[in-house]
Specification:
Length: about 400
């Protein structure tokens, strides 16, 4: 067998490509599901939305509590928002496997938790003291522990160096700061919040439709995610908005809300179809959430918008800026048909129009709007992204790389 001079270079480049595209994703819900003794802890990680935050982070340690220890916490009947702070103390922003725990430099260390990362922990109350104790035990307690350790290391559950470590500790970690009452953000005024942060035009449109504004407000307490087009985007879109019927305008505005809270991490890890506030019966009014690297895109079959910033993210409400108005196909199917991709020479490219008129149809004013209609076919984009994600998440990618390396060597 003779190896060509170019083969070593080809092999090196392919290995670099393989290593740069391989990800080490983890799913804390699936990990704990294999251990029924942590079922209550696992359940409340989901209820408080901490699971999604854990899944999007790397280099992390989760201190799992068994069902008996969790029952002691639940007997306090803490509100969900307060319970989240307490459980956040059990998630460290560093990797601690069993070996590292027993080899801590100088026998003691402080580590930051997700409670500290929220910015709600006063001072350093979001730090946990980890100390090697007599008899080979490892103790855990909040920073100001006065020498008393509330919990000790029990065992290692799962270790994926140096991505995620799941360990069991004996008791709940808590503090006065974590258990302090947290006001539920039910009194948040969504329109006021948007108006102060670059989305005044969209806020004004909601106010001009009181029933729509009321729907947004009523969904805040149970969970709401809003995608807010910025002022410049709304200004360019207004000619088309004015051509919609009153019902069509209401549906378009409702289309920008999802009746469930989604952090950025949740949007990235839960790609797929999303129902909106406009969804009702046969009127689907849905769109697809798809992350593209660090970007999160919203694909409606008419346009593909990108989340460009976060206005507010505190459970149960999240508000994100988007770079385009979300156009549902239920309202803009006529627009889609009249603006196809350039056809090859010699082919017929006939204009199509909506056969049926109705409350939700839009009149085509013929005005060009590059900021809304310059996207490639969202359906094609979605297919390509889904294919790429499937390749990464399966062994196919490894097989392809190895096959290419073998051919290059031969």
């Amino acid at each position: 067998m003779k190896v060509s001079p170019a083969a070593p270079l080809s092999v090196t480049l392919l290995l670099v490509l393989f290593l740069s595209t391989t990800t080490y994703a983890h799913n804390i819900t699936k990990i704990l599901a294999k251990h029924p003794e942590f079922s209550t802890f696992n359940h409340y990680l989901t209820v408080t939305h901490l699971a999604a935050e854990i899944n999007r982070r790397q280099t992390i340690t989760v201190c799992a509590i068994d069902n008996a220890a969790m029952n002691v916490l639940l007997e306090k009947h803490l509100p969900t928002y307060t319970l989240k702070n307490v459980l956040s103390l059990h998630v460290f922003a560093d990797y601690f496997g069993a070996k590292k725990l027993h080899q801590i430099t100088k026998g003691s260390t402080l580590t930051a938790t997700m409670f500290q990362a929220t910015g709600e922990a006063p001072g350093t109350s979001g730090y946990i003291n980890i100390t090697n104790m007599k008899g080979g035990k490892v103790g855990f307690a909040n920073e100001d522990n006065d020498g008393h350790f509330a919990a000790t290391f029990v065992k290692s559950v799962v270790e994926m160096p140096y991505n995620i470590s799941v360990i069991q500790i004996s008791h709940i970690l808590t503090s006065a700061a974590a258990e302090a009452p947290v006001a539920a953000p039910s009194d948040l005024n969504v329109t006021t919040l948007m108006a102060k942060q670059g989305c005044k035009s969209f806020s004004d449109l909601l106010k001009s439709h009181p029933d729509v504004a009321k729907t947004f407000a009523e969904n805040v307490q149970s969970g709401l995610t809003v995608f807010c087009p910025t002022d410049g985007v709304i200004s360019a879109f207004m000619p088309k908005f004015k051509n919609l019927t009153k019902d069509g305008q209401a549906s378009l505005l409702l289309y920008h809300g999802i009746p469930v809270y989604n952090s950025m991490g949740m949007l990235k890890s839960n790609n797929g179809l999303m129902n909106t506030l406009a969804t009702e019966g046969k009127n689907k009014y849905d769109f697809t959430v798809q992350n593209d690297g660090d970007d999160v895109k919203l694909e409606t079959k008419v346009v593909t918008a990108t989340i460009s910033g976060t206005l507010y993210d505190e459970e149960p409400l999240s508000v994100y800026k988007v770079d385009k108005v979300l156009l549902p196909r239920e309202l803009f199917k006529g627009t889609v048909a009249e603006e196809p991709a350039p056809a090859p020479k010699g082919s017929k490219n006939k204009k199509k129009s909506s056969k049926k008129g109705g409350a939700d149809d839009v009149e085509d004013d013929g005005a060009p709007e590059p900021s809304q209609d310059d996207d490639e076919d969202p359906a094609d984009d979605s297919a390509n992204l889904n294919w790429a994600n499937n390749v990464k998440s399966s062994g196919l990618f490894v097989t392809v790389v190895i096959s290419i390396i073998c051919v290059a060597i031969i």
